[in-house]
From TrEMBL:
Entry-linked Gene3D superfamilies: 3.30.230.10, Histidine kinase-like ATPase, C-terminal domain
Any single GO CC term annotated in Swiss-Prot or TrEMBL for this entry: MutLalpha complex
Ranges of biased composition (kind: Low complexity): 9-24
Lineage of the organism: Eukaryota, Viridiplantae, Streptophyta, Embryophyta, Tracheophyta
Record carries keyword Transferase: no
Signal peptide: none
Subcellular location: Nucleus
The protein's name: DNA mismatch repair protein MLH1 isoform X1
Length: 710
């Protein structure tokens, strides 16, 4: 290569040479970084965002054998992360080194990684959090009389552990996350950006760890966005977390391989069928109980769906893969999000073939052409089969419907009780078995897959099932649903706290006011005196039974007042105008002597109170408005004079507004609480097929023949 000398022009240029062209006089020195700088850099890699911190804390809770994990989040996790569990806790003597880097109880030698079963093992997560946030730990171990609370910063305790009151397990609070990393905080500008990621994370954990109670909520909120009850089946957990519309379109799948020449593994899970429609793939993957990502497996499954289904819809996938520990390398990613598998290609091929076979077998029935007279356009996920979609206020109602459907469906299945959970009372078991043995299978199919259409009148609602249209008696159905739910939730009720204690005497006198009472004994007693005596007798009886009513049915009375009522259906509060009637029935209609009859009659009284009756105020729409017109005679005019003078009667606007609110709330409860709960929980008895509760009013096939003649 020939080198050319620089020209005079370039050498005389006034511009300074660029830094890249300058030759340093000596190489830069290599310095040992301060420990605080090293730890902060490492912390930024391990705790990339609030959801990463939650994942580490939840995995620690699961490693501690917790059966309940609760997560609270404020400002997307930047302001506050609070993770509580009921695990085995942390020893007092371990608290000084708890948040030092590379301190762990999961392993002691490198060889332990070959058989590691815990999710955490490096001892970096808690230490990293103390370098980018303010960490406070409260813990108690079994047998201790009190717990300890201690705060950490930069890996060390800020003070000695302080004794404190504590519940079983550990609570870790992380405040002001990334307070010392301005650039990181700027990348998380929207304070709520990470909350959906945290909800998604807890949802995935709850599906796999179905024996653990999980909850996730915004700090200070009474409603949990994720709430699962341990002990239910995996499909029920998916239904609780992701909704009935997802669960009903899932198929169970399993495959295994024990050939050492290829791969040794066992996979179990659920995949969506051809009816499932989504714009984005949801893949929940656990390998040896560790939540991980596997891009290659995800792409392989998506390829099967795109090739098999004409709509190329994105699938929902849950897979739990178990392999020998020595076939998995868990130490390849800073956040343990990925793992390396032995014979990964062979494993993916086997799973891909199993998914394809399952999907093809389920898709054969979908390929059959449906006769035009049997086509059904509406389903429970589509609002355009409901009467609301044809109202003038369509834009507003569809917006509210979309929001309320998402929120209420999740709330309806929140804290769902296990129907098969054993109780200590054989009488409750007998009553539940009676319900199971008396189920009408045809009505059960209708209830499980029906579509709400709208209200027909004050008592009946319209529902569609396949090509049939039915009238359903809302009062009867809601009463039976409430009765069954009372028995299923026996002794495990959440509470509705009354804003103010309600005096039993006043409520009972209200209920007795319109009843006809026969005078007994002293003929000089007035009706008021007799009512007062009856009310007092009822109060004394309820006081005797108040412990049992609170323990078994969530009805709390204290000092002659009603304090709390039970939650029978989440997101639903009964009509409080019916409390007087409920208390009178509770005092007079219960067989207190026989346990089975006692529980059954109390359940029936509660069911009648919680049933969705028409409001006490008449419906102001249509002819009902006449009940709200002020009395003509009070104005000193008769109807003829009013007619001649074309004087319009005044309407009590305040009362009309109250009535409209009550009737609107009832319809909302029917559509967004009763029908979703009915699809999930109701076991319709055989009598409902003949007593007019369900009445078929139309059949698409028959209507089609009629229209063909036109």
């Amino acid at each position: 290569m020939e080198l050319y000398p620089p020209s005079p022009t370039s050498s005389s240029s006034p511009r300074s040479p660029s830094p890249h062209q300058q030759q340093p006089s000596s190489p830069p020195r290599i310095r040992r970084l301060e420990a605080s700088v090293v730890n902060r850099i490492a912390a930024g890699e391990v705790i990339q965002r609030p959801s990463a911190a939650v994942k580490e804390l939840v995995e620690n809770s699961l490693d501690a054998a917790s059966t309940s994990v609760s997560v609270s989040v404020k400002d997307g996790g930047l302001k506050l992360l609070l993770v509580s569990d009921d695990g085995h806790g942390i020893r007092y003597e371990d608290l000084p080194i708890l948040c030092e880097r590379h301190t762990t109880s999961k392993l002691s030698t490198y060889e332990d990684l070959q058989t590691i079963k815990s999710m955490g093992f490096r001892g970096e997560a808690l230490a990293s959090m103390t370098y980018v946030g303010h960490v406070t730990v409260t813990t108690i171990t079994e047998g201790q009389l009190h717990g300890y609370r201690v705060s950490y910063r930069d890996g060390v305790m800020e003070h000695e552990p302080k004794p404190c009151a504590a519940v079983k397990g550990t609570q870790i609070m992380v405040e002001n996350l990334f307070y010392n990393m301005a650039a990181r905080r700027k990348t998380l500008q929207n304070c709520n950006d990470d909350y959906p990621k945290i909800v998604d994370l807890i949802s995935r954990f709850s599906v796999h760890h179905m024996n653990v109670n999980f909850s996730c909520r915004k700090y200070g909120s009474n409603r949990a966005d994720v709430h699962t009850v341990g002990g239910t089946s995996r499909l029920d957990t998916i239904r609780t977390v992701y909704g009935a519309s997802v669960a009903r379109d899932l198929m169970e799948i399993s495959v295994s391989d024990d050939n050492p020449a290829r791969s040794i593994f066992k996979m179990e899970g659920f995949i969506s069928n051809s009816n499932y429609v989504a714009k984005k793939t949801t893949m929940i993957l656990f390998i040896n109980d560790r939540l991980v990502d596997c891009t290659a497996l995800k792409r392989a499954v998506e390829l099967v769906y795109s090739a098999t289904l004409p709509k190329a819809s994105k699938p929902f996938i849950y897979m739990s893969i178990n392999l020998p520990s020595e076939h998995v390398d868990v130490n390849i990613h800073p956040t343990k999000r990925e793992v390396s598998l032995l014979d990964q290609d062979s494993l993916i091929d086997t799973i891909q073939n199993a998914v394809e076979a399952k999907l093809m077998s389920s898709n054969r029935t979908q390929l059959q052409k449906v006769p035009v007279n049997q086509m059904v356009r509406t389903d429970s996920r589509n609002p355009f089969g409901r009467l609301h979609s044809y109202w003038k206020d369509e834009a507003q109602s569809s917006k509210q419907e979309k929001k309320s459907d998402l929120v209420s469906m999740r709330s309806v299945v929140v804290a769902r009780r296990n129907w098969k959970e054993n109780t200590d009372f054989t009488s409750i078991d007998q009553l539940l078995r009676e319900i199971d043995s008396n189920v009408h299978r045809g009505l059960l199919d209708i209830v499980k897959d029906c579509t709400y259409v709208g209200l027909a009148d004050e008592v009946f609602a319209l529902l569609q099932y396949n090509t049939y249209l039915y009238l359903v008696n809302v009062v009867n159905v809601s009463k039976e649903l409430m009765y069954q739910q009372v028995l299923c939730r026996f002794s495990k009720f959440n509470a509705i706290q009354l804003s103010e204690p309600a005096p039993l005497r006043d409520l009972l006198l209200m209920a007795l006011k319109d009843e006809e009472l026969e005078t007994r004994g002293d003929e000089t007693e007035t009706d008021d005196d007799l009512k007062e005596k009856i009310a007092q007798m009822n109060i004394e009886l309820l006081k005797e039974k108040e412990d049992m009513l609170e323990d078994y049915f969530g009805i709390k009375m204290e000092d002659g007042c009603l304090i709390r009522l039970p939650v029978i259906l989440d997101q639903y509060v009964p009509d409080m105008d019916r409390i007087p009637e409920f208390l009178l029935s509770l005092a007079n209609d219960i067989d207190w002597d026989d346990e089975r009859e006692c529980f059954q009659t109390i359940s029936a009284v509660l069911a009648n109170f919680y049933a969705i009756h028409p409001p006490i105020l008449p419906n102001p729409s249509g002819d009902g408005i006449r009940f709200y017109k002020k009395n003509r005679e009070e104005a000193g005019l008769d109807s003829e004079i009013l007619a001649e003078k074309s004087v319009e009667e005044e309407v009590d606007e305040e009362l009309v507004a109250e009535a409209e609110t009550a009737w609107s709330q009832r319809e909302w409860n029917i559509q967004h609480v009763l029908f979703p709960s009915m699809r999930l929980f109701l076991k319709p008895p055989k009598c409902m097929a003949t007593d007019g509760t369900f009445v078929q009013v139309a059949s698409l096939e028959k209507l089609y023949r009629v229209f063909e003649r036109c």
